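Dear support,

I submitted the protein below through the web form. The confirmation email said the job was done, but the results page showed an empty box. After a refresh the structure appeared. I'm attaching both so you can tell me whether what I see now is the final result or a partial one.
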Amino acid sequence: MSSDYLKECIADALLVLLKEKPIEKITVDELTARAGVGRVTYFRSLTGKSEIITYKFIKLWERYAERNDIRVRDRFDLNNALHFFRYNRSIAHILTLVYRAGQQEALHESFYRIMTPPDREMDTLSSYREKFYAHGLYGLLDAWIRRDFRETPEEMAELLR
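What the results page shows now:
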């Protein structure tokens, strides 16, 4: 089995367990048993529960972008704003669960990794611009989540424009 598959099993198990109890009460033994993987797999593949959640958000975005044929998926593009908000609305149940667990930073980290890949060469202005958009979009999403997704994805995209 691939490392990605095993990480995804662990991530899915963590999301299930988060429905049952607070994150700090979830043990590695419990998590790996629910995922059907060994403890060694957990410690070899991941650095902690927050890393698991970050990994899951990145995978979910990659799948959504692939299914929706989103060409620019690793940086801000105003043309993709509606997709961005539709995607996040589609995983609102996961976002809400993660926020209840106090793991907002995992979402922020996933944004940072998706939108500012370390291997992308950029000039100074582009580098600052990408960071600005990554953090700005996260801020909008954070507010939207905290407002219980009151606005539609279309309203959010228009707000961004």
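Response: this is the final, complete result; the empty box was a page-load delay. The chain has two domains: 1-46, 49-160.
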